[in-house]
From TrEMBL, chain A:
Principal location: membrane
Swiss-Prot/TrEMBL keywords: Cell membrane, Ion transport, Membrane, Nickel, Nickel transport, Transmembrane, Transmembrane helix, Transport
Protein name listed in UniProt: Nickel transporter permease NikB
Molecular function terms from GO: dipeptide transmembrane transporter activity; nickel cation transmembrane transporter activity
PROSITE patterns membership: ABC_TM1 (PS50928)
Membrane topology, from the record: Multi-pass membrane protein
Transmembrane segments: 12-31, 102-124, 136-158, 178-197, 281-304
Protease recorded as keyword: no
Domain ABC transmembrane type-1: start-end pairs: 100-297
């Protein structure tokens, strides 16, 4: 019940946050150094005569006061109308909604891969502290934090597709096409997470409640599962929340290597062209995705940590 | 043992003492970092060929005696382009870090000094910047400013300053009611004087630790944006651009994408190792939290 109220409260808090974000995005793009009307003419391949500029300004509503412009845009956005791309002359939102699921799918698979690999690795390293497994995880982490993800993508294609022929080099459709891009995206996060879990487990296992659980005669497996791991996972949840952003950012970069039909290429070409309606809508969608992901992470955290779940902190 | 006071006066000796006690990994990394710095500064005199010289008769050569690492699709010497890329990469990182620290000190110092409403407002803005992943933030900034190396540096500065501002603010907050600050104020010192003379030096060591830890990350950031075609533009030799140029030849000439990636990877690794070592040295309580 407490968890439900916590969730609802946080969901309501999203509305003012998105509102502020939309103002910030709108203002920053408008106050940037370039003139949207010029960009519009450039992208529509119309010669920028003074008359054409004037017409474009009127058509795009740029001659109106900026507050009027913002509220017109906001009113349309509330009806899911984010304008028309200058370069493609197509409505923006349907295109983004067409490409976004593929990006979120790949980022989601990368997130699952991060957790599925880093948690066992972290536990393994903590169990054999300073032993061979620990050294191995240390090496993985050492490589992981310095590896450019896009280069790792090419290395994987070179090794696994070209040299060995095990995996298809690009495309989307089968599970085998997801392995390499997901690994390239997840490698940094999973290596950081594994080290973090190792450190967190070793820290928790030195605490009194674990000592007491052992004194009570609980088996090593039981102590590890319910007394060490559960507490040690809390920092991992926080870290995962931060990694989600890196994973989605990584996906935007990696997509082009594997021909993954996500929102990355669409957004990058819009950014390159300064296609304002697309940049506005894309950034706002990203804000929405991150805010929702952070919300989910907070809920998981509250669920794992009884101090928050039972509202102890509210009274404190 | 040299005491800390002595080390302050003899930075070079302190550096050697620090490196003398360091692990082999730190020594190798320190060597790599120095080599990169030398290449960045003296590159034009070291590189065997002009990195921009197109020679279509010698396209896509394999590594050999004349071109040690071979040539690319326009017949340009890879080794020379890698060396020229050092300057672009390190230069971009250095300028970005100076910009980030400047913004961080100004914003964080203002927030910490003013306190109250102004501080609250500034910290809310800082929180917003810290919520979003830096890559998406800088993509947005480039959308606003346009592409190119200068705009990439501005975008990186605008998307990274918040962490620095936060540290500066918390240090200024914790120090501003200390007796020596009050004494300085009683003696008639102005706010700017107090900040630059008494507060700023206290924040610098922590900012430097954060900055060294960030070098690798920013290098990856610059290369990643250039790889996407939003940063450094093609004729300029830059590692991310070189990887992007090499992608169409991955089936026939995979070595072409190996070299710039390896240069980037090794540089980032060296800076990361140095960052950890500097942090352990200057800010021991940060690393004491980790269980070793």
């Amino acid at each position: 019940m407490k968890l439900l109220r916590f969730t609802l409260k946080r969901l309501l808090f999203l509305i003012p946050m998105l509102f502020v974000a939309s103002i910030a995005i709108f203002l920053m793009l408008r106050l940037g150094p370039s003139d949207p009307a010029m960009d519009y003419l450039r992208l529509s391949r119309v010669p920028p005569t003074p008359q054409a500029l004037e017409n474009a300004r009127q058509m795009l509503g740029l001659d109106l006061p900026i507050t009027v412009q913002y509220f017109t845009w906001l009113g349309n956005a509330l009806h899911f109308d984010f304008g028309v791309s200058y370069a493609l002359q197509r409505p923006v939102l349907p295109d983004i909604l067409h490409y976004l699921p593929a990006t979120l799918q790949l980022a989601g698979v990368a997130l699952l891969l991060t957790l599925a690999v880093s948690i066992p690795l972290g536990i393994w390293a903590a169990r054999h502290r300073d032993g061979l497994p620990d050294q191995f995880v240390r090496l993985v982490a050492f490589l992981g934090v310095s590896m450019p993800n896009f280069w790792l993508g090419f290395l994987l294609v070179w090794l696994l597709s070209i040299e060995l022929g095990w995996l298809p080099p690009m495309g989307r459709g089968s599970a085998s096409q997801m392995i390499m891009p997901a690994l390239a995206i997840a490698f940094m996060s999973l290596s950081i997470n594994a080290r973090l879990l190792r450190a967190s487990m070793l820290e928790v296992s030195g605490q009194r409640h674990v000592y007491y659980a052992r004194l009570r005669g609980l088996g090593a497996g039981k102590v590890e599962r319910s007394h060490i791991l559960r507490n040690a996972l809390l920092p991992i949840v926080t870290a995962t929340g931060m990694h989600i952003g890196e994973l989605i950012g990584g996906t935007l970069v990696i997509e082009s290597i594997f021909g993954w039909p996500g929102v990355g290429r669409y957004a990058v070409s819009a950014i390159f062209n300064r296609d304002y309606p697309v940049i506005q809508c894309f950034t706002l969608m990203m804000v929405l995705v991150f805010v929702l992901c952070n919300l989910i992470v907070d809920i998981v955290y509250a669920w794992l940590d009884p101090r928050i779940r039972l509202g102890v902190e509210e009274k404190a | 043992m040299i005491s800390i006071a002595q080390q302050r006066n003899r930075p070079l000796a302190a550096t050697f003492a620090f490196l003398g006690n360091a692990s082999w990994l730190v020594k190798v990394s320190a060597f790599l970092v120095m080599a990169l710095a030398v290449l960045a500064v003296f590159g034009p005199w070291i590189m065997p060929f002009d990195p921009g010289e197109v020679d279509l008769t010698n396209r896509l050569l394999a590594p050999g005696a004349a071109h040690w690492l071979g040539t690319d699709h326009l017949g340009r010497d890879i080794l020379s382009r890698l060396i020229a890329g050092t300057r672009v990469s390190l230069g971009a990182v250095a300028i970005s870090l100076v910009a980030i620290m400047t913004v961080g000190i100004l914003v964080g110092g203002t927030a910490g000094f003013l306190g109250g409403r102004a501080d609250q407002l500034i910290m809310r803005v800082t929180d917003i910047f810290m919520t979003f992943p830096t890559l998406v933030l800088s993509l947005f900034m480039i959308g606003m400013l346009g592409t190119g190396l200068v705009n990439v540096i501005v975008a990186i500065a605008l998307s990274h300053w918040a962490w620095y501002a936060r540290i500066v603010r918390s240090i200024v907050m914790s120090l501003r009611h200390r007796d020596y600050i009050l004494a300085s104020r009683l003696a008639g010192a102005g706010r700017v004087h107090i900040f630059t003379e008494h507060l700023l030096p206290a924040t610098l060591s922590q900012l430097l630790v954060l900055a060294t830890l960030d070098i690798g990350h920013i290098m990856l950031h610059v290369a990643g944006l250039s790889f996407l075609g939003l940063g450094v533009m093609p004729p300029t030799p830059e590692w991310g651009v070189m990887i992007n140029d090499a992608r169409q030849f991955i089936w026939t000439q995979p070595l072409l994408m190996l070299w710039p990636g390896l240069a980037l990877f090794l540089s980032v690794m060296a800076f990361n190792v140095m960052g950890d070592a500097v942090r352990d040295r200057l800010d021991p309580h940060l690393s004491a939290e980790h269980v070793h």
